[in-house]
Amino acid sequence: MVKLKGFFSSDEFKILWPFYLSMLISSIFFIFGPYMVIYFLEIGFSFFQISILAIIFMIAPIIFEIPTGAIADVFGRKVSVILSDILTAILLISLFFTVNYYVVLIIFLLLGIVKTLASGADEAWVMDLLKYNKKQELTQKYYIKMMTISSLGVVLMGIISVFFVKYLGIRIIWVVSGFGILIGSLIFVSSNLES
Description:
The chain is mostly helical. The chain has eight helices and no strands. The chain has helices spanning about 10-30, 30-40, 45-75, 75-95, 100-120, 120-130, 140-170, 170-190. The chain is globular and about 55 Å long.
């Protein structure tokens, strides 16, 4: 891997590169955000129906946070985060294949539940890795870099999303976003990180 001298310290890059790369790829291809409401209006959903989707997505994590947290405790944080990413990718891609409001509602409920698998487990995994490698002093750098990388990804997402939507249609937002998350999770799968 190429090190960006001056931006990453060698220890930081060696330990945290999978998190940084996964964040960059996931952010770049997470293109459904700016187009979601437009897409749902285009397929005939009302603003009320779209609001219900958002509410369901926000309430589900509150209800399922504790039960899904047990997965990280039993199987490890790495398994929990990767499982969350893979299931999120599958659910997003499945939105490409349906315009039925009730099916979409169920998918959004499941997205909210699946989100809880990574909630807290992702940051705890990083903190455990830094502690294991006796590099807790990198904690602040990690959070700063993740914000920077995420912001860079969002800027690039804005640029590439226009091309995807223009040439492949607005419905492609689900497939592109899902595959972006899937690629990010494969980085974790292929990395040699502790859980």
